[in-house]
Every structure is written in C-alpha cells, then in structure tokens.
Write a structure and sequence with these properties.
Blueprint lengths: L1 E6 H5 L5 E3 L11 H17 L3 E10 L7 E6 L1 H15 L5 H12 E3 L5 E3 L1 E2 L2 H12 L10 H4 L2 H15 L4 H7 L3 E8 L4 H7 L9 H10 L4 H19 L4 H13 L3 E4 L2 E4 L5 H8 L9 H20 L6 H12 L6 H13 L4 H21 L5 H13 L6 H9 L11 H10 L2 H4 L2 H15 L10 E4 L6 H9 L5 H4 L6 E4 L2 H4 L4 H8 L5 H4 L9 H18 L20 H17 L4 E4 L4 E5 L2 E8 L4 E5 L13 E2 L11 E5 L5 H16 L1
Helix pairs in contact: 2-7, 2-8, 3-4, 3-7, 10-13, 11-14, 12-16, 12-18, 14-16, 15-17, 16-18, 17-19, 17-20, 18-19, 20-28
C-alpha cells in the first residue's frame, strides 16, 4: 500500500484517467445534509484561502501509464459529489473558456475517436442518471423524468446549482477552492482490498452491513465475474425485497439456513442480527467456500429465496393467502415469522401443498403470535428457527398443516403456545390499553368487527375509545351511588374499549349522551354499546369475558394441544433462570441440531437418536443438570455430584448445579464427551 498527502483536484485531473466504481460498491447515498457540509467547506476555503482535508481516497490501479484506470475502493461518495458540484458550476456560467476548463479537466476524456467519454463510471443503478447530467452540454430540466428527479444524484446536483446561485462567492473562487481540498491518496498494491476496506475510518457516510457483505462476496472476483454476479443475483435480490429490507432479509435468510439465530463469534455466544450480520456471514461462508464457483452458488440460493421472501413482504392483498400474510407481517408487526414462512413456502414449491393448506399454516402462525403477545411471551427469531428444525424432523407422512401446528407447539418457556385457559384469562383481565400500542388494539378490535359486520369501515382516522372514560368526572356520582367502587380496575380492559371516529365528540360525556353518539357509529361493535342501559364494572366484566371467549375462536388452538400444564416444570422457574435455560437450550441445538427437547412433568430431557443425553430439572432460582453417564467418564468432574445411590428427578448418574450462563460451556463440553463415548 502506498499512501501520501495529496490534493483531490490533481488526482481527478489526471490525463485520460478513468475512475470506476466497482459493482460491489453501494449506490450513491449522500443526502442534502452531506452536500451542505461539502458546500460549506468550499465556501469557507474561498473566504480563508486555507486547505481543507476531506478524507481518504482508496483505490486499486489496474491500468497502464498511458491509460490509467482506477477501481475506487473508498471515496466514491466524495468524488461523485465533487463532480456534481463541478457540473453545477459548469451549468451556472456562460463563459465558454471556463466551461471547457471544467469539462475537459474533470468531467470527460476525449477518446481516439474524438468522442467525449465519462471520467467516472458509476454503479449500474446510478450510471444512467449520472451520465445524463454530466454529458449534457446545456442542462435541460424537462429532459428528466420524475423518477430521475427523485434520485440522490439529481437532487444533489440541483442542491449545488441552487447554492451556487445564492452564494456571494464568485464562480471562479468556488472553482479554485476545489484545488485546496486535501486527501490521503491510498493506492493498494498487494494488500487484500477487503481488509483495507473494513478498516477504513473515513469522513464519508458509514457503510451498512449489507454493503460490507456485498463487497466481501464480490470484491476478490475478476471484473467480468463481478459484473455478472452483481447483475444476475445481487441486483435481482434488491429488486425482490427492496433496498430498505435488504438487511432484514439477509438476517432472516441466514437464520433460516442455519435453523438457529445463535452463533459463536470469536468463541463467544452471539446472535445473528443486523449489527452482527457481516461477521456472521463470514463465519457461515468463509473465504475457502468461494472456490469452485461457491460464491455464485450462494448468491443463486439467496436469489431463489428472495423470490419467496417477495411473496411475504410485498404487502398486497390479491388473494386470501396474501391477505393472511399481510395481516401477520404488517398488521401484527411480526416480521420474525418470515423465517418460518420462507421455509414453508420453499417446502410448498417442492411438494404437493395447496394454497389452502398454506393459508391454514399462516392462520396458525397468526394465532401463535397473537396469543403469545397477549400472554406476554416472546416473539423471537430463535423460536421460528427452532420451529423449522421441529417441522423438518416431523413424520413426512403426517399432513402438512398438522406438522405446522406441531412445530408451533414445540416451544417451551416463554416461546410456548399459550393454552386456551391461559389465553382467555390474559385476554379478559389484562389492562390492554396500557399494555399495547394503538396499532395492536386496532388490529384486535377490527378482528371482532369483521366477525359481526359484512361491510367494515376503513381504519383511516379511527381511534381507540374508552367507553367508561379514563377520568370519568361526570360519571363518578352515578358510580358511587350504585356502590361501584372497583370501576378503575376495569377501565383499560378490552371490554371497555371500542372503535370510533367520533372520539372528541363522545369525550367524557355521561353514558346516556355517549349512547346516542355510538348509535350512529359505522362500527357494529360500537353501535352494540348503545343497547346497554348502563355501563359499570359489571358490564365491562361481562363484555370482556364474552370477547375473551370469542377470541378463542378467532385465534384458535386445536384441542389436541390444550392439555393442562399447571404442574409443568416450566411453572417453577423465575424469569432469570428461565432466560438461562433458553440460552442453554439454544446453544445445545446450535452445537447439534439433531438434539431435541422432551418435556416431562418435572424435568426436560435432551435426546439424540432416541437416547437421553441429559435432563434439566428446573428449580425457582437454579437448575440441576443430570448427565446420563458415569461421573468418571467426564473431565473435569470436581463440580459434579454422583447421584447413582440417591433418589432424584431427571435421567442421569451425576449432576451439576447451574445458576447462570457462565457454566453453559461446561455443559456443552460434557455433552461432547457423552456423544463421543456413545460412538466408541
């Protein structure tokens, strides 16, 4: 690597030089705020005549002395913005000599055929609009479409043009200021461009994890191969899922492929998420996997699943299946379920599974998400990854929808599918208004409305109405008169909530006046309130109970899964030890995806190939780990207790106490030793 202090202008003015933004680079992403800072720096130079440092330009020189050609690794945003500024200067003057100075010096080269050629080649998505702006001799605003005008390239060009016109500095002084922009000129020679790229701490706009991932996959390929894979796969993935959802898709894809969101990063337990995405892909797809067209195979698979993902996130409602997916992903804001849905839709592609069955599967997911949310469980990436494991282990002769229900009911602890009794009680007694955001409450109340009304009023401008007001000053005298002293306990329950577009009109008025307003409502569930003669704690309690019973039908759970779990081991653990258990469970399945849990009344077995490896016996603030082998076969064993002569719960001959996540690695070591012993 050769690095030295330099000025930007001489670098850009190199005779016949061509600057290329490789396909693995991100799009031009500077916004007006970034350009405002650049223009302010240029104006400051005109006033002070002092140099100003704007960052590093990192490039690989792959041309010759007579035909210099540079791949820009870092500095794309600054170079593009300076060229747009110079073109705005060019279009702001009538001085032909000045125009020629700018155009021939910075913007174009003249080829052997005397035809002007762009000095800077952009990535494909920006190339056409950038070239259109730069190559126009006379700028014509009407020549650009609405879509082109909404691009960052056009908006920033227009910003510079407007600021130049408003500036008190002369055009010549603004041009001269460009020659005082300092850079660090970094020419890469034998170094790995990706390593340098990762380590750069430039003043430009920081890269996203998908930018880094794209660079990691494409950077070390030859130019033609880069272009081919970028156009055929990466660009198509972006079109399928949309640029805003690229990080989310890449996270969901990797979790789905690994069937777990847990991963060991530098010997530490971590999670696959937006922040760790880049590091996780380097572990999943190390450099040696790139050989023999490995990168193309990975991108082809990513592309295939992006076509499936598009069906999940397209947010249309053309079919009943589309509507159900839209309800799940957007109305319930449960994008995590996309991990499971991607796998199910992939299974549908390969087998004879109808859209009707897929619709039932999506509705089962809706029931799971809603019940867990109401019961205060966890909607987590990890559960849906584990659901894939459970689904794939299922008997393929069992009907598809039964396997889906089995998978959704495989979760334990905070992941488990709440039973009817639990769900009904939570739905009826929770302070819904305090627990959930308006979007969730609107969703729930609209589901009830759809059950009773054929013509549902659109939710625009609808609000959540407390029938008994939160501050019922005008009601208190009546409530006290009938000795209703517990009304505050019921104020925020589901039975006291309804939909209205007349919230301000109803306000805190007495119930008799509210009834006349409710009677005119476009919502059936609100009009029904007008049939009550009074509205007290008793009415709220009865309506909450009726709605909870109806909720069991709207978000059902088949009777097969409704066994009483009141005596289950899960009821013993406090929140802290349950979290330790969840982490232990995830790391065991990360270690070996063929190990699965079997829930017993007072403990949980971990089984592989029909053989119990260990049991977890939960207590309130700790767990016993009983290991199904002899103590002397494990090392170290100083923390183990021999229980062959003791009565105990769980299956095993020795045990250890687990109180926090620090000893999970020890448990994993014992599992490895037990499995190795079984092979011998």
């Amino acid at each position: 690597m050769r690095a030295h202090d330099a000025y930007l202008a001489p670098f850009l003015k190199l005779s016949d030089a061509e600057f290329n933004i490789p396909v693995y680079q991100r799009n031009y992403s500077w916004d007006t705020e970034n350009c405002q800072q650049l223009f302010s720096d240029i104006e400051t130079i005109t006033n002070t005549q002092k140099d100003h440092f704007i960052g590093s330009i990192v490039y690989v020189s792959i041309g010759t002395a007579t035909e210099p050609y540079y791949n820009i690794i870092d500095g794309q945003q600054r170079i593009t913005s300076v060229m747009l500024f110079l073109k705005a200067l060019y279009d702001s003057t009538d001085d032909d000599k000045f125009k020629k100075q700018i155009r021939n010096g910075f913007l174009v080269n003249t080829g052997f055929d005397d035809q002007p050629k762009m000095k800077l080649k952009q990535v494909e998505s920006d190339q056409s609009i950038f070239e259109k702006i730069i190559m126009q001799q006379d700028f014509l605003e009407d020549a650009f479409s609405t879509t082109e005008k909404n691009s960052n390239v056009y908006r920033n060009y227009s910003f510079f043009k407007d600021r130049i016109e408003q500036s008190s500095s002369t055009l010549q002084s603004l041009y001269s200021a460009i020659f005082k922009l300092e850079i660090i000129d970094v020419c890469l020679t034998t170094e790995d461009p990706q390593e340098v790229f990762e380590s750069m701490n430039s003043t430009g706009k920081s890269l996203t994890n998908t930018d880094l991932l794209r660079n990691y996959l494409l950077m070390d390929l030859k130019g033609n191969q880069q272009t081919k894979l970028y156009k055929n796969y990466w660009l198509q993935i972006e079109k399928n899922v949309g640029s805003k959802l690229m990080e989310q898709y890449m996270v969901h894809y990797l979790i789905m492929k690994r069937k777990s969101d847990s991963i060991n990063i530098h010997r530490r337990s971590g999670k696959i998420n937006r922040n760790t995405l880049y590091d996780c892909y380097k572990i999943y797809f190390p450099p040696e996997n790139k050989a023999n067209n490995g990168t193309e195979r990975l991108l082809a698979d990513m592309y295939h699943f992006s076509t499936i993902y598009k069906k999940i996130v397209n947010n249309n409602a053309l079919t009943e299946l589309d509507k159900a997916i839209n309800e799940l992903i957007y109305e319930l804001s449960a994008e995590q379920v996309a991990i499971f849905l991607m796998h199910l839709l992939y299974v549908q592609e390969r087998g004879i599974i109808s859209d009707e069955d897929m619709l039932l599967a999506v509705r089962a997911c809706i029931s799971y998400v809603l019940r867990v949310r109401i019961f205060k469980g966890s909607i987590a990436n990890q559960f849906f990854a584990l659901a894939i494991q459970y689904f794939d282990r299922g008997d393929s002769s069992v009907p598809f929808i039964s396997r889906v229900w089995d998978a959704l009911n495989s979760g334990q602890g905070s992941y488990r599918f709440p039973k009817d009794r639990e769900f009904q009680n939570a739905f009826e007694t929770k302070d819904m208004f305090l627990e959930f955001k308006p979007q969730m409450l609107r969703y729930i109340l609209y589901k009830f409305e759809r059950k009773v009304s054929k013509e549902v009023v659109e939710p625009d401008n609808v609000t959540i109405e407390h029938i008994l007001p939160q501050e019922p000053e005008k009601w208190q005298e009546h409530l006290l008169k009938i000795h209703d002293n517990s009304y505050r306990e019921y104020t925020h329950r589901i039975g006291n909530l309804t939909l209205t577009k007349l919230n301000s009109e109803a306000s805190n008025n007495p119930f008799e006046k509210k009834k006349t307003i409710y009677a005119k409502s476009g919502y059936m569930i609100t009009r029904e309130i007008a049939n009550y003669s009074d509205w007290t704690s008793n009415e709220i309690r009865k309506r909450s109970n009726a709605m909870a019973l109806e909720a069991l039908k709207i978000w059902p759970l088949p009777e097969k899964y409704n066994q009483d779990i009141s005596a289950s081991a899960w009821r013993i653990m406090d929140d802290q030890i349950e979290e330790v258990y969840n982490q232990l469970s995830e790391m065991i399945k990360e270690y070996d995806p063929y190990i699965f849990e079997e829930l017993k009344k007072n403990w949980i077995n971990f089984i592989k190939d029909k053989k119990i490896i260990l049991s977890v016996v939960p207590c309130q603030s700790y767990m016993w780990i009983t290991l199904n082998t002899n103590l002397e076969k494990l090392t170290p064993n100083d923390s183990l207790e021999d229980i062959t002569e003791k009565g105990h719960w769980g299956i095993g001959k020795c045990r250890m106490k687990l109180t926090n996540n620090e000893d999970i690695w020890t448990v994993l070591s014992y599992i490895e030793q037990i499995l190795d012993n079984k092979k011998m």
